[in-house]
Request: fold
Amino acid sequence: MKIAIYGYGNLGRGVECAAKQNPDVELIGVFTRRAPETVKTRTGIPVYAAADIAAHKDEIDVLIICGGSATDLPKMTPVLAKDFNVVDSFDTHANIPSHFDAVNEAAAASGHIALISAGWDPGMFSLSRLYASAILPDGKDYTFWGRGVSQGHSDAIRRIPGVKDARQYTVPIPAALDAVRSGSMPELTTREKHLRECYVVAEEGADKAAIETAIKTMPNYFADYDTTVTFITAEEMQRDHAALPHGGFVIRTGKTGLDGEHTHTIEYSLKLDSNPEFTSSALIAFARAIDRMHKRGVNGCKTVFDIAPADLSPLSGEELRAHML
Amino acid sequence: MKIAIYGYGNLGRGVECAAKQNPDVELIGVFTRRAPETVKTRTGIPVYAAADIAAHKDEIDVLIICGGSATDLPKMTPVLAKDFNVVDSFDTHANIPSHFDAVNEAAAASGHIALISAGWDPGMFSLSRLYASAILPDGKDYTFWGRGVSQGHSDAIRRIPGVKDARQYTVPIPAALDAVRSGSMPELTTREKHLRECYVVAEEGADKAAIETAIKTMPNYFADYDTTVTFITAEEMQRDHAALPHGGFVIRTGKTGLDGEHTHTIEYSLKLDSNPEFTSSALIAFARAIDRMHKRGVNGCKTVFDIAPADLSPLSGEELRAHML
Reply:
């Protein structure tokens, strides 16, 4: 399978590394909106101008679009699905239905296949929610995120006057996890599920008390949470907070029996050293699946829910049944 | 969807209860090899003789075969797949390829669809192994079972002279779980992964020391494990060990990055009050999927690897994308 990367940030670099781990995947190049000669890839693969991508149509089985969900993907994915089979990691949950419709129209009209919202949430966490709810209909599921860096919350802090740099960790609260795992199906408030840990580098002479208040009272982002703010130096930020770890838990508990007398707990969890590299690895597996599906004549927009798991694996059906079932 | 149950033991009773939790499922009856008038169902659904099942062909969308893997299913599933869409929970891992071939031949020839080896292992654990290995090819996975009752090991103890009743729990060893979760990819021996807890009711006057030795030295079942043997009374057995809990863990750790510099841990775990009721609940969800696939013209033998997750849920694609992705 020949793939290419469209957009070369953290996610694109992750796809580049993940491709090397999959012998059936050949990465033909990176397409960037920057001047190609200014972009140096990690493994030395060629860099092309995004504007020239149409000339490479016949060399690419699946194009992996590594853009941001806020402004890039809503435009890029429908346009690129006219000429390519594409995968993206669109993760603005509320806008998935409209993104799906736009991509589906483009892909179905051109006979291509597109898979949107692959990764871990949406992605593997979504699959965990679906499987668990299908098996235990009389139950309740909970998603916890972290401990991990939230880029959106880090950015929100950086926009506060006097803040030079910031890193925000979302942290699930152990007592909430335990309450969920007990099967008691608790109603949990936002504050009871997660806390927010903020590390901030202030500009010289900045009013730290004012920054702390601005963070803790920020609506939507922090006001509904217990939030800690720790001021650190730029050196400490670089030394202790350069990585992008993340992860979380999807837990569903449910009842079975004649009168709901038995309780079951299904738990799926991820602990990721690098959020973008794990997401990239998932994108490659789903690219493999849509390449196979397209060769079987399938087109239009798909999500992880539409992919038979066997299509994700390089192993044959016989091998999977013999060794993994 | 109209379903029927073939075989009315623990699993069949579980399917009967699970059907009630799914409004789109109608259970039309139970088929038994016993005299139907001697079988009383938990919810009052009709009981028919297994021999008469052909007369009910047109009333059943999917037949859920609730037999044992040792002798029942290898015979039943291929025969019943000639007249019905079927689901089974065949769980003898080593014989899955031959069972698949026999069932596939029958189902493909008759235009039916069959799904074998649904449940949790094989089943949800298999899916967890497949997803995790597809995403993290440079890694290693581990499956732990328990804490839970192993019926096979309990039966093996019951066959020892002087034993009146026995219950065996398979217990994962916490130090092994921790070593796996650390990402160090340890090589673990059988003895390091699980221990075996045995509760035994001895016959009056039996030689307990001899029973304990017979258990601990039994090849395949116990000799390779650290095993504890506790003698209890028949009353204690009834009071403390009547349930059939089970569960376990599938954990894969893997590396990503240019030089494998980042480690990730994917963990799926189940904690089940009732092993047969959870398996039954999974059988219903997979029955829904094959009913839909058959109506789309699919036939032949399938496994959980071949089922697009969306087909397991009563929700529509739109609903799933809006609320679960």
Remarks:
- The radius of gyration of chain A is 22 Å.
- Residues 68 and 273 of chain A are 21 Å apart (CA to CA).
- DSSP finds eleven helices and 14 strands in chain A.
- The longest helix of chain A spans residues 275-295.
